[in-house]
Amino acid sequence: MHRTAEVRPLQVTASRPDTLRVRLMLAMILSYLGMMAFVIYSARHPAPAAIASTIFSPAMIALASCMAVSVILTGLFVLMRHGD
Amino acid sequence: MRMSRNDTSLLLAIACTIGVGGSAYSAQPESQVRQADGSTILFFVVFAVLTLLISFWTARRATSSSEYLTAGSSISSGQNGLAIAGDYMSAGAFLGLSGAIYASGLDGMFLAASYLASWPIVLFLVAEPLRRLGKYSFADVLTHKLRERPVRILAGSSTLVIVSFYLVAQMVGAGELISLLFGIGYTPAIVMVGALMIVFSTLGGMRAATWVQIIKAVLMIGGSAMIAALVLVRFGFDMSNLFKTAVSNHPNGQGIMDVRSFGLDGVATLSLGVGVLFGTAGLPHILMRFFTVSDERAARLSVFYATCLIGLFFVMLFFIGFGSIALLRGDTTYAAANGVLFGGNNLAPIHLARAVGGSILAGFISAVAFATILAVVSGLLIAGASSAANDLVVGLSGRQLTERTRLQVSRISAVALGVLGILLGLACEGQNVAYLLALATAIAASANFPLLILAIYWDGLTTRGAVIGGTFGLISSVALTAMGPTIWSKVLGLGPAIFPYDSPALVTLPLTLLVCWLVSITKAEPEGDWRPTGPSVARYVESIGARAQSAQVDRLGP
Q1: Among B131, B327, B414, B550, which one is least packed by beta carbons within 10 Å?
Q2: pTM for this one?
Q3: How far is A60 from chain B (nearest CA, A)?
């Protein structure tokens, strides 16, 4: 049985690096920029008293979400099949 | 909206915390600062002896340059993850971020989130190619595609500049911290840390530095968890009670629950964020960690472990910071009437450890802070030695070194850098070192990161483009940081700053990419000195994978 014929060289060019890798990176950058935008907005517009009285402030939740996204995206990438 | 001078100072004070915990300790008279007690000295001696034993144990194995500089690529992914996390859990992160939260609330957590967000970028973009193509330094990846001599000289120069700034900042912070924690003078503190650092790095190399980072990371996480748990016990595990007490104790009131100072000037915050987000992927002592594991899978896993551990550590710092506000503010045992802690706000976790766990826990935490400084400066020294031996000497001499010579040059470089660190640390006593760290991160983001990314993912990068672009990034980031508010106005006292932001990465990073691209597409490589451009690293790596897969199937046969 010849299985060599089934193998094709990977058609990768430098201008098209691993798509998922790029998507995950963009997701991380967007998540970080989103967190930053929210933090800047909430600094200029303090939360109403009703929200401020809850345990965690909106800014805390924004920071925690960004940190959680960092860990989750890293985990997703590690769990992917890489073929090495 | 322009940021006020006070806001800028706070931002810089927090920015400096990741790398060093010094510079603010002299805020109070030394007589009011706690002197070393028996438990602190005992733990310190235990750590000093332990680290020396590790360096002697690993010295027997460090007989080749690969063993000395990269631990023979035999570190497991879990161990490397702990060591990377240890690099990030510097004394500055531990003491500085806690102190920043104590001073102004949630502002301190903004940088923590930014540094954590930089790790996926490192993983997605550089970790695997570095491991696959690099041997000793990130210049190995560049020279796969570009001509060796000019690129090695450039990479070696930028690495040594970054390492030097980091090293001086760490030494000044270490001198101030150790002199306060152990009640000794600044000069003996610097000499003691420097001597231990040189012995440790020269003998044991990367394996010793890695093991000390691992031990320190475990102790740091354990100590932080203990303090955080004891704080929560004090408040009956009721976080709303903790936050309410903190808000009522702090003069900013509800403001400590928001990120106020970073929110006032969006451009300054964005520039700082860009520097942090991409600067990590250009820091030599971080990149070097990927050469210590066996393959790309281990590199990926180690980043994942490190990200989880760093995230966990920052969460505990959050509780330590708010616990400090709730328990230390207003307590005359630990803080002055204006709220500033004795010895400076950066001693918040050590005071808190004493408040919730007594002198034994405080002594343990002080000694862990010392071990942290030692581990971080040793890693920096080895990264600098590696670059000096493999990039600068090879680039300047134009010859490959023999194994024996490479090891000798590495060790001599480590000693020379260590002595330089001691001398500069002594010369910079009392200096504000925040700008050195801002500069180091900005250079890493502006000079190293663009070259690495273009070399890995773009076919068109030429040697000339890399050298001109990299030199531009190096000079522009140094110049613009010098013209920023901290150095120009505060350190040099030359009046209003020429460049309005302390971190220039938002300007210099895109400009460096643009210069590399423009020079590469407009200037053809001449024959002779400049090597014709090879394929990008990404394509080369894929072709290796395809060839390996093909060979494996061929071996299966009919």
Answers
A1: B550
A2: 0.83
A3: 7
